[in-house]
Specification:
8-stranded mixed sheet; Rossmann fold; 32% helix; two-stranded antiparallel sheet
Length: 333
């Protein structure tokens, strides 16, 4: 992987940092020379968190005497090694640019990157594969619809997607609500633990919580109110007489319930495992089930895969698993 700096023509006073693997395709017709694998970060981990998975992926191609596609992972403005967004209004910080702005920046980045690549066609003819973690998954969904007429997103790998339509706090019952029934709680969960859990999730995950990117998440639930709609755009498929359309490939991966609950209990939040397993994990599981319905084709898995032994940051906890899932998608393109 090569570290590069990219300055968007739309924002010339700041730069993005990226890591790139530029494929050198063979002179054959059946290969991945027109494929660009794009990694979309969550809020916490930068592009460098993907590098172990990418290393495993490249090794798997080498071991099988195959030629890998072009790979791009980057830090958004204000994240990792990238500069802050030069259009952020100092008077509104920490709430500045939103998901629509990030999607627009991503499109400009991909347009410039593909046009300057010696091995890729222009963006409209490049087959994109999005590998996403956390908030990167809703960003991929928003991008797909914003630029459906200009891109071909052939495959998606959603690694523990952020639950985009919640404030996180309301996942847990409010013990101070007038209609709350303490007797409805399962054994091992107390009103005091619920109250504490709600305060911790409000402190760390509520959409109003600032982040170093100045990414304003307050309206994300309005942008994506449902996990199962709108469906991911169809893509062009070559036909005998004229191109037809088909659904993209989609793999949805969820975290290991016990590992995630363990990390919540032993980490900074110190939220009891029983509370997470009673309320958060079932809610997240239903959300992931909805994501599967974003595509309608027999070629896609109808079950959510579980990354055994992994918490929310699957690329960090098991990069080899992530590499295998990417390779599986690429083999099916």
């Amino acid at each position: 992987m090569e570290d590069i700096t990219i300055t968007l023509t739309t924002k010339p006073s700041a730069s993005l940092r990226a890591s790139v693997f530029s494929a050198h395709p063979p002179s054959t017709s059946r290969n991945l020379s027109d494929v660009l694998v794009v990694f979309l970060n969550g809020l916490v981990l930068s592009r460098r968190a993907w590098l172990p998975a990418i290393s495993h992926l490249l090794s798997s191609f080498s071991d099988n005497n195959q030629h890998p596609p072009t790979i791009l992972t980057y830090d958004r403005y204000g994240q990792g090694d990238s500069d802050h967004d030069p259009t952020d209004d100092p008077n509104t910080i920490p709430y500045s640019h939103d998901a629509h702005d990030i999607v627009s920046d991503l499109h400009q980045l991909l347009t410039q990157f593909t046009s300057s690549s010696p091995h890729l066609p222009n963006l409209e003819s490049t087959r994109l594969v999005f590998v996403c973690n956390s908030i990167g998954c809703p960003l991929a969904r928003l991008y797909a619809h914003a630029h459906a007429d200009q891109t071909q997103i052939s495959a998606y790998l959603f690694l523990d997607s952020m639950i985009a339509n919640t404030d996180f706090v309301s996942i847990f019952p409010d013990p101070d609500d007038t209609g709350f029934d303490p007797g409805s709680l399962p054994k091992g969960v107390s009103p005091q633990e619920l109250r504490y859990t709600r305060s911790q999730f409000r402190k760390f995950f509520h959409p109003t919580v600032p982040n170093p990117e100045h990414f304003d998440r307050r309206k994300l639930a309005e942008m994506l109110p449902f996990s199962d709609s709108p469906s991911l755009p169809l893509i062009a498929a070559p036909g005998d007489e004229k191109p037809s359309e088909k659904a993209p490939l989609l793999t949805v991966v969820g975290h290991d319930w016990d590992e995630f609950a363990e990390q919540c209990e032993k980490g900074t939040m110190a939220v009891p495992k029983q509370v997470i397993n009673t309320f958060m994990n079932p809610t997240w599981s239903r959300y992931n089930d909805g994501l599967l319905r974003l595509v309608h084709t027999p070629g896609n898995s109808n079950t959510v895969k579980v990354a055994s032994g992994c918490g929310h940051f699957i690329q960090k906890d098991d990069p080899e698993f992530v590499a295998r899932e990417i390779k599986h998608l690429l083999d099916n393109l």
